[in-house]
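Example protein as discussed:

>
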Amino acid sequence: MLPSLPWTLKAPDGSAETVFSPPVRLSVAPPESAAKKDAQPLDIRGPMSPSAWPWILSTLVLLCALLYPLHRLLRSKTPAAAAASEPPDLRTPDQKALDDLDALLGLSLPVKEFYDRLSDILRLYLSSRFSVDALRMTTCDLLRALRSPEAEEAGARPMTKALLDRCDLAKFARFEWPEPERRRDVEAAREVVRRCVRAPLAQEMSKAAGANWTGGPKQGGTP
């Protein structure tokens, strides 16, 4: 029981009066579990079991480490297998260049992309025909490389210069060549290829004619 407590109250006029609070009776009851007769004390908590997550993560890391080399191996073999399954391109460089030029007109490309492709076709052909790295050369460097006797004999250097200059104007200066001029430029590229093809044939015919003439009947001899 809480005893009675005195409280002193002061009025505004300064008078004071003491009052007492009533005593308070408290009742303390046992907890509900203790009130039950059949209540038993709990066992001591056992040790914490280890988590399975570290083992799971370790297993996944090990699987990734084992499968990654296999994935790299299979990925490296796929392009080689695809390349092996493709039939070899038996076309000569001039045939391939002429086929690519024919296909270029049907692609309906914007002007810049059109002349990019036209320049690449011509440069690839010149690379294979005269053994020069035309794709990595500037136009000036390529024209200097085409001063070889073989290239001069083909007579295609002036047309090549004019055509590559037009390609450079479209690629770098954004010249918008109209459709008829694009067709004429494709035909000019065809003519470059044809001249390069005709040059070795003319040289072989000239050699054959010279051999026949030197092996012919001598003056005053019996025919």
